Amino acid sequence: MQREKFIERVLLLLALSSIASLALITVFIFLEGFPLIVHTGLTNFIASAHWAPTKGHFGILAMIISSVLVTLGAMVLGVPLGLSCAIVLAEFSPQPLKLVLKPTLELLAGIPSVVYGFLGVVWLVPLIRNHLGGPGLSLLAAAVILGIMILPTIISISIDALSAVPDIYREGSIALGATLWQTVRRVVLPAASSGIITAVILGMGRAIGETMAVIMVAGNALQIPTSILDPVRTLTSNIALELGYASGRHREALFATGIVLFIIIMVLNLSATLITRRR
Amino acid sequence: MSNPAKKSADADACLAGDGASPPGPALPTFIRRLSASWAVAIILGVMLLLSGCGSEVSSRPLSIAGSTSVQPFAEKLAEIYMQEHPGVRVDVQGGGSSAGIYAAEHGAADVGASSRELLGEEKKLCEIPIAYDGIAVIVHPSNPLTGMTVEEIRQIFVGEVTDWRAFGLPAHPIDLITREEGSGTREAFEHLVMAKREITPRALVQDSNGAVREIVAGDPSSIGFISAGLVDERVKALAINGVLPSPENIKTHAYQLVRRFILVCRTAPVGPVKDFIDFVLSPKGQKILEKEGLVGVS
């Protein structure tokens, strides 16, 4: 019994240490970044688009807007594609096909983001530049690449949600004379809706947090975009681009950017948790 | 650009003054810059760790810290120096010009590396120029332009001129590419070209010379700037005020966009530090730098 208690304690300690690292990261980001927000004032920080940190201007509005737009773009592309993929795999595919396709799609998640970025630079960017105009490195390029990158997240969580709907629902619907498609649309999808919304929110978190691929294809310009062909800089790219050389206030400003990003992602994750729990 | 001949005379004076004992760190300044001293403390800690590991090396390693623009060249020099002097270790770290100068000033590193000129208080340190680096303004090879004036480049990067039509070419928006805030190359470009004006937020930002070159090589309507040593056949360097960034023109400063790479010491270097700097300035050391794309000082 003594030994069992001991093992329990050790496991508890290990579990707590992983949570402690999250707490440490939170405290560290806030300690490093908060002085700057106090220094410039919250409104000057998040409502100004003038970012010239070595000259004392710390406005991140353009990056907040760009992050939101790039993420929305990725959603517009990724959600319909991912959801239809999930419906086909969960409802309309014979078991053997599903066994092959699902792991294949999940392989997408294992491709490093720098590879997506590289493909974007050599293939997508010239395509946009030659056929649509602009420099090619753009909001559109980032949205397309991210839209593909979030597919595995959306597909696998949606499939789980759809599979969790009890077969009695489907049988009842078909017994009432509904076709297979009517069953999926009117019965299965509404029943799985909270799981699907969670999938979308987690995909959104992935998109807003992605850095490497976005740095490579988004162009990183500091303006507020006026067209989808404009180059943009997201919050994450801002941190990764400039941290290497930053010192003093500039460094604090990058941590403060991290605080904003942290809050956005926390809100997304919490709402995903709440929605799942409601079920 | 200030008179290079005078600067190198200063450096000679630096090198000649052997034997002076280093003064202790000024304590009040040290406390005032507590946050910067954190960085130094970390560098120092890493140095101590490293020196603890190298059991076969008898003496303390020579440490160089500073500009990320100088770092690859300093690493190359250190590598060859260590091959020739087994038993001596040279550690090269980045951190930026300002951090390097600060480290040298406070003794956290033996030598600071800087890609910018010393400012104000820093001028009392001992500086040794080791090479010149030209900043080339590059366009796609299919661009018929061969040269621009500094004024024209400034107008493009400020955002006043946004279309190639202004240069008599077919109308097409200019895609301009700059480096990220804090980069040494950008700092030098702003200093030499921008005359205190800001680079437009419309500009694309890339975080390395290679990435800028890659984009200019792929986009026929783009313009950017990189280290002259890194220009290859896939991009075209423009003549500035009629002068091409050739090694000769960079050395004589006929080409205008030139920065110096300097090593910084607290006092005139002695012992192993002097030996390493002598190696850098020797024909062999200078040849290494020129092979890597820089232009030597001697």
Verbal overview:
The complex is a heterodimer of chains A (279) and B (298). Chain A is built from 13 helices and two strands; from the N terminus they run ααββααααααααααα. By secondary structure, chain A is mainly α. A two-stranded antiparallel ribbon of chain A has the order 1-2. In chain A, helix 5 (113-131) crosses helix 6. The relative contact order of chain A is 0.15. Helix content of chain B is 39%, strand content 20%. Chain B is built from eleven helices and twelve strands. Chain B has helices at 4-16, 27-32, 34-53, 71-84, 97-105, 150-158, 184-194, 209-218, 247-251, 271-281, 283-291, and strands at residues 62-66, 90-95, 111-114, 126-139, 147-148, 175-179, 204-206, 222-227, 236-237, 239-240, 258-265, 295-296. In chain B, the strands form two sheets. In chain B, strands 1, 2, 3, 4, 6, 7, 8, 9, 11 and 12 form a ten-stranded mixed beta sheet that branches. Chain B has a two-stranded parallel ribbon with strand order 5-10. In chain B, strand 6, helix 7 (184-194) and strand 7 (204-206) form a beta-alpha-beta unit. Chain A binds chain B through residues 49, 51-55, 62, 121, 125-126, 129, 134-137, 215, 219-223, 231, 233, 241-242, 244-248, 250, and chain B through 35-36, 39, 68, 94, 96, 98-99, 173, 175, 180-184, 198, 201-207, 214-215, 218-219, 222.
Q: SSE order of chain A, as H and E?
A: HHEEHHHHHHHHHHH
Major beta sheet summary of chain B: 10 strands, mixed
Distance between the termini of chain A: 39 Å
Number of helices of chain B: 11
What distance lies between the first and last C-alpha atoms of chain B, to the nearest angstrom? 18 Å
Q: What is the makeup of the main sheet of chain A?
A: 2 strands, antiparallel
Query: What would you report as the Rg of chain A, rounded to the nearest angstrom?
Result: 22 Å
Uncertain parts of chain B: 1-13, 16-34, 51-58
The number of helical segments of chain A is: 13
- Based on secondary structure, the structural category of chain B is alpha/beta
Query: Which two chains touch over the largest interface?
Result: A-B, 31 and 28 residues
What's the gyration radius of chain B in Å?
Answer: 21 Å
What is the oligomeric state here? Answer: heterodimer
Strand coverage percent of chain A: under 5%
The coarse overall form of chain B would be elongated
Instruction: Specify the helix fraction band of chain B.
Output: 25-40%
Total count of strands of chain A:
2
Identify low-pLDDT runs of chain A.
none
